[in-house]
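Worked example 2:
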Amino acid sequence: MHSNGIAYVCIVFTLCNLPLVVFGKEKTKGKNKNVADNMETLPKEEQTEYFTIQKEVVVIGSGIAGLAAARRVASDQSNFSVAVYEARRDRFGGRVWTDKFEDKNARGLAVDLGGSGLNVVSKNNPLIELAESFDLKSISLDSLQFIVPWEQKVYSRDDLSEITNKAFQILGKALNESKSMKLDVSVKDAVDKVLKAEQLLERPEAYFVRCLPSYILGDYSMHQYKPEHLDIGYEKVLLDGMGELVDRLLSGSPDEAPLHLYLNKAARQIKVDKKRHKVLVRFQDGSQVSADRLVVAVPSSVVRDGDLLFEPPLPKHYNLAIKEIGMSAGDKIIVQFEHAFWSNDYGVFIRAVKEKVKIGQLQTWINIKRLAGVNTLASFLTGDAAVRFEKLTEENAKQLGKNLFNTFFSLTQKSRKN
């Protein structure tokens, strides 16, 4: 099976960021004064009253970003009442969607059709902190095999460590050169320039760098890239699926106020009412709500493509930042087998490719057997490769998979025998 998707990127805006007090004009000592500006002049009991009146908070989007923001606000239940509105008709969670195979042979294997894993290489990954706060079971995929078919070579452990270190150096040079020219170019163009200048095109580290998602996407900004974080894929996954994060955020803890949750409510327009100190949200079904605070947590494409309008318009630098966020098509492939023909010593298999047309085409496979004891592999297509794959007939897609398995894992089997 495969799932359509784009880059899992959310933009979170906080609008009408007003103080935690009653807004408007109040008569104080015979004069109209703003309560927020004159709080210290009020009796202590009146200050307490102003600070404890609940504010209505609306969150647009129920993905991880939206739900996490809603939970953070709801933890202060004395001050905030939180409502979450989701455009989908059938479920919360946004691009996080954990399904379970009904086939009894899969033994209830949790399959993430959307976001799948936690990158432990990135420092201070908030998703890891969130998963740990809920005590969710996870497993590491820190063992990796790198396959170069045309050289008949399989790299792992010490050999691979040397390759990744050299890959870091290539990315660092690419970043430094692009910054020295004060010209933002794509990771792909910057890396290709370094590889050509230093005659590294036929080196294992060059093959490895070309397998990174940031390279495959083609238009990923070099200035936005952090070369200390090799984006080689997942290093930790949740055993019960990423949907567990969604479930925990939806349910909350006994100490937190419940969230008011609404499905099938696609926001169309957001308007700031300065006179009333409110934010108005109009939905596609014609209804509207008002709030004291608003958090918008939606895929950047929703804002970029004008599906969600703002009045007044967002600042120019917001729109520019959204426009520059790279987006791409993406598919996930999940295949079950009667018998495992791959080594269970490794969690991730990455295959180098030479032809440009094959870049992003099932280059990385995740060993699900290592996670759940089920003979299953999961892979990905990104960028142009995903678009081409979706146009294949079912028979052609199966044949493509068979051909790839033959070239992908025949070398790993030889490596095991040696």
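The CA atoms of residues 67 and 397 lie 36 Å apart. The longest helix spans residues 157-180.
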